[in-house]
Amino acid sequence: MSRHPEVKWAQRVDKVFITVLLPDAKDAKVKLEPDGVFSFSASAGAENHHYELKLDLFDKVNVEESKINVGVRSIFCILEKAEKVWWKKLLRGDEKTPHYVKVDWDKWVDEDEDTGSGPGDLDLGGMDFSKFGGMGGDDAMGDFDDSDEDLELPKPGEQDSDKNEAEEIGDDPSEEKKEEKKEGAGSA
Fold first, then answer.
1. Could you give the CA distance from residue 15 to residue 30 in angstroms, rounded to a whole number?
2. pTM: predicted TM-score of the whole model, two decimal places
3. Are 101 and 27 in a shared domain?
4. According to the UniProt record, where is the region Disordered (predicted)?
């Protein structure tokens, strides 16, 4: 009996990304047909379990322009769509998507955000470099005003003169506490 490997997928207007997650796959065979049938088979694991997969894709693909890379941990496929349109789902038919087929959120782009090409096509390990804009250079802090004009802090010489004035008037709270201590010590 064969097993099913985990499959992740994402799409752009012109291509579909399919990643078959199967570490240490041996004798991996991938077959892609123009009518959209994607077949995969390999053996893996210490006991050489046989894995098989057949996906009836939503629409036709361009076999000649599609690319397949068999890596150590996964098999990564970039399938060129025959027509540059967004698919409603990965598989044709009304059946529920199999439990081993999942969305690849690291590669996913919404239809309204798809530019057709560029950095969105690269696998950046899930990092979105567009969020790092404006974090360097002279304007790194934006409109932050670091001037001290609005703060009314006493100047070092003024602080001492204010304290001296309070002592002369007799409003110095430290003097009152000294007097209270003397009175408390004398009555004991």
1. 17
2. 0.61
3. yes
4. 110-188
pLDDT in tens, the chain (188 residues): 789 999 999 999 999 999 999 999 999 999 999 999 999 999 998 899 999 999 999 999 999 999 999 999 999 999 999 999 999 999 999 999 999 999 999 998 888 887 765 444 444 444 333 333 333 334 444 444 455 455 566 666 665 555 555 455 555 555 555 555 556 665 55
Q: What's the total number of domains in the chain?
A: 2
Residue 174 has, within 13 A of its CA and on its CB side, a CA count of 5
Whether 121 maps to a domain, the answer reads no
Q: Which residues contact 100 (CB under 8 A, 6 or more apart)?
A: 4, 5, 6, 7
Residue 122 inside a domain? The answer is no
Do 80 and 163 lie in a common domain? no
Amino acid found at 141: M
Strand 37-44: give its sheet, edge to edge.
26-32, 37-44, 49-56
Range(s) of the domain holding residue 17 = 6-108
Question: Buried (b) or exposed (e) across 160-184, using 16+ Cβ within 10 A?
Answer: eeeeeeeeeeeeeeeeeeeeeeeee
